[in-house]
Write a structure and sequence with these properties.
elongated; five-stranded antiparallel beta sheet; 333 residues; seven-stranded mixed beta sheet; Jelly Rolls
């Protein structure tokens, strides 16, 4: 057994008053190893998770990977780490939130999973000074309903007094990807049939997947606190002259919900964006078609529509009609 020494806060116990305070429980004695603890070094667990939303010109906003509704951790990402400790910390460089479930003796320490945002630390048994217990292993992966992915790095803190300090800010992460079709003004659906394609809360209550739409929704548990940018790529080989694309917002969270949270059907809001002209290129060597990118900021980034969405409309005499646009949305949790 390792040799121990006792320490008390403040000066050494040299007076009768010190012994009196100790007897009355007013002084805390802490047992420490003389030798440094080398038996349980900090451990990291890293995983690369597939994005749960993807680009598809047939499925459009329904291009979502299957997630089992009875599993709070996306089953295709679920990992079981045989690593014990007192706390779990998600490094700020991680590109997605993760759901964690500590285990004790092979059984969940809690029936619920805990969702960690990048930069968060989770101590399932409370503060170290309370004499916290530890877990023997843990399950983790993407939280159900999350539509992003990427690298996640978990730190397992091996002792009750272990801590971690992060440097820098939490990163921008991808939280949603989809392909959208640019419609002619006369091809717009009625307001009641607005596309459901612009969420900001996950699980997304209106999430549908597959060629035969299957509900993949659930009560929202994660909100994008700071949507930062939208990047679009126009799938058109060339554009002879600049063309205007109108982005119509239908049933937005910001403008189109009343005091009871019910959707207000009208009016519809819009933002106009312009694709600049470019010549056809690509196809030579190992290069395929070359499509332009455009980064959007402002209103289109900040607005959301968990029970509605956006439609893209060609405002340039059919120049853009029926073309497709790949969309990637970024934000900070």
């Amino acid at each position: 057994m390792a040799a121990l020494f006792l320490t008390v806060p403040g000066d050494l116990m040299t007076t009768l008053a010190d012994f009196s305070r100790l007897a009355q429980g007013q002084t805390v004695i802490e047992a420490k190893n003389i030798l440094p603890d080398t038996d349980s070094p900090g451990v990291t667990a890293t995983a690369l998770f597939a994005y749960q939303s993807y680009f598809d010109t047939t499925l459009l906003e329904r291009a979502l990977l299957t997630q089992s509704v009875n599993e709070p951790i996306v089953n295709t990402t679920l990992r079981h780490e045989q690593i014990g400790g007192y706390a779990l910390a998600l490094h700020p460089s991680s590109q997605c939130p993760v759901a964690v479930q500590p285990m004790i003796g092979g059984q969940p320490a809690s029936a619920q999973t805990t969702i960690l945002r990048p930069g968060q630390v989770f101590r399932p048994h409370g503060r170290p000074s309370v004499g916290a217990g530890n877990f023997s292993s843990f399950r983790w992966g993407l939280p159900f309903g999350w539509l992003g992915g990427g690298i996640a790095t978990l730190y397992v803190l091996p002792s009750s007094d272990a801590s971690v300090t992060w440097a820098g800010e939490t990163p921008e992460i991808i939280f949603h990807r989809q392909t959208m079709k640019i419609l002619a003004p006369g091809g717009l659906a009625a307001q009641a049939n607005a596309r459901k394609n612009w969420p900001l809360r996950f699980p997304w209550t209106q999430a549908l997947r597959g060629t035969v739409p299957t509900a993949q929704g659930g009560p929202a548990a994660i909100g994008i606190g700071n949507p930062t940018r939208v990047i679009m790529s126009l799938q058109l080989a060339s554009l002879g002259a600049a063309a205007t694309m109108r982005v119509l917002f239908q049933s937005s969270n910001d403008f189109d919900l009343n005091a009871l949270g019910a959707i207000v059907a009208t009016p519809v809001r819009f933002v106009d964006t312009v694709w600049g002209s470019y010549a056809a290129n690509g196809g030579g060597g190992n290069l395929g078609a070359e499509y332009p990118l455009m980064e959007l900021s402002g209103e289109i980034v900040r607005l959301a529509a968990d029970d509605g969405g956006i439609q893209l409309v060609d405002m340039s005499a059919s120049t853009l009609t029926n073309a497709y646009v790949d969309v990637v949305r970024y934000g900070k949790l």
